[in-house]
Amino acid sequence: MATDWEPYAEYMLEVMNVAPGYRNLAEDGQCVPRPAERPVTKFERRGERLGHGVWDLKFEKLA
């Protein structure tokens, strides 16, 4: 998951960190560096031009 809106990233973390059956893959339990497999979107490029940050979250679904 990725967003350029920090409050939304914080909310997603709050929800996903307590969601049963998922594990946060960030070493610090927060956000991960931009995953190489995630394509850059036109929204992300625009946000970068405007100086916005991007927050990436990566969770693993447990069996």
Describe the structure concisely:
With 63 residues, the protein is of the alpha+beta class. It has helices at residues 6-17, 42-49; strands spanning 2-3, 22-24, 55-56, 59-61. The protein has one domain.
Structure, described:
With 63 residues, this protein is of the alpha+beta class. It has one domain. The chain is 32% helix and 16% strand. The two termini are 20 Å apart.
Fill in the keyword field for this structure.
single chain; 63 residues; two-stranded antiparallel ribbon
Q: Describe the biggest sheet?
A: 2 strands, antiparallel
* Residue fraction in strands: 15-25%
The sequence of SSEs as H and E is EHEHEE
**Secondary structure tally: strands:** 4
Radius of gyration, rounded? 12 Å
Tell me, what's the shape?
A: globular
Q: Taking all residues together, what is the mean pLDDT? A: 93
The structural domain count equals 1
Quote the distance from N terminus to C terminus. 20 Å
Helix content: 25-40%
Strand order of the largest sheet: 1-3
